[in-house]
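Two entries, shown back to back:
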Amino acid sequence: MTGLWQRARLVERRTETATAVTLVLAPTEWPGHLAGQHADIRLTADDGYTAVRSYSMSAPARDGLVEFTIQRVHDGEVSMYLCDDLPIGADVELRGPIGGWFVWRETETRPVLLVAGGSGIVPLQAMIRQRRLSGSEARFRLIYSVRTPADVIYADELAAAEDGLETAILYTRTAPAGASRPPSRITLADLKAHGWTPGFDPSCFICGPTGFVETAAKALVAMGHDSHKIKTERFG
């Protein structure tokens, strides 16, 4: 099923931030997916021109529906159309799920460290939601770096208390009033303060822009984390 294109109808659109939108698609026949996987979306114009982009699923598959949270890319021909112009009831083509390495399975019991930069939160949020849905008791810690409070995707959901999930949101441009940490890029000190120490032997997932991912991964290795248990996914 992964290699085959199928039709998928847009059944819901949710605004997450001023620049991010969640699309809920109803594929013809979806085989299910693991938290962290992605899929290809293909658009075809009337003149036959096609454009394909890969997007991470933002939630477990439920009732045959598949969710993607998409960040608008300035001048991006696909993201702008999907976020702003694709009408409810319209079809796109979908191929997936894709990827078997950057995934979290609900049978895993090891502590988990999630490190997200910007829209890199999307596949990590799928892991958080899968944990919640499955009733897993694996302990999660999320470190989420964003520019400003207005850029926090899934803000209400992340603000809600959840047993076994600890969340730290770091700001790089503007921090909310009363924040103890001044705005700055993620540092080794942040990972030490909010992550797991190597003694907990956690699974680590990092997703975000290339520079962010490289900085966070190098910092975790410097802390003594096993590089083989640090999984990364980058964009841009």
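entry 2 starts here
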Amino acid sequence: MARNQNHDLINDPEGGIDRLLEIMRRLRDPETGCPWDIEQDFDSIAPYTIEEAYEVADAIARKDWPELEGELGDLLLQSVYHTAMGEEAGHFTFASVVRNISDKMVARHPHVFGDENRDKSADQQTADWEAIKAQERAGKAQRGTLEGVALGLPGMTRAVKLQKRLARVGFDWSETGSVLDKIVEEAGELVEARDTMDADAVEDEFGDLLFVMANLARHLGVDPETAVRRTNRKVEQRFGEIEKRLAALGKTPSQSNLDEMDALWNAVKADERSDATKG
């Protein structure tokens, strides 16, 4: 394609994915591209990819659909970035990545694209999905139960994935009561470590407690990352309201004290419950 044709595509608002791919090629051009983009590699871009995925989740949580549109574009750019670098290194191309995920979706949904009966529960479909994934791992010579769980996942998400793998081979509690008992046990060990051991031991016991908490989340059908993000938003909103109420009194948080702010916190919670009841 001639240079002017490339330029026409780059400036074509209806150019679709071909336009975005060409923009990335131009950004990465070693002679005429952007110096910053040229210097990047898989390792340097990976943190941005993770950040963009979280920003997508944040826009969804806030139900900000115009923002989500933009964030999805940012996340798509990350895929285009990685595939451009993969193509330059001879590893894969955007077309091969698209073909790979398309083949995978067809293979994992035989009840939609094949001859299997579609009349099954969501739980059965999930079990079938996991069985197909296990077959895929076997084909990649991943023999260990816990092999192949991505190291770059958030800690609690990875803990849940590890526990799902363990549950498939029967290494799991059968009901939540046993998990709650284990939480009490681990909390006791954390207290003991705090009182008698060094910082490394405290961190180790704290990690054990978090791992069991992730297991409880799985048993309850709760995604722990989603749950903690929800609590983070709640804390932000409530403390923002505390600051407003303090401002009405001519104060800032640093001019207040714990007792006053705790009382305001409880008042905000009571107002939230009242509003929920009215709604």
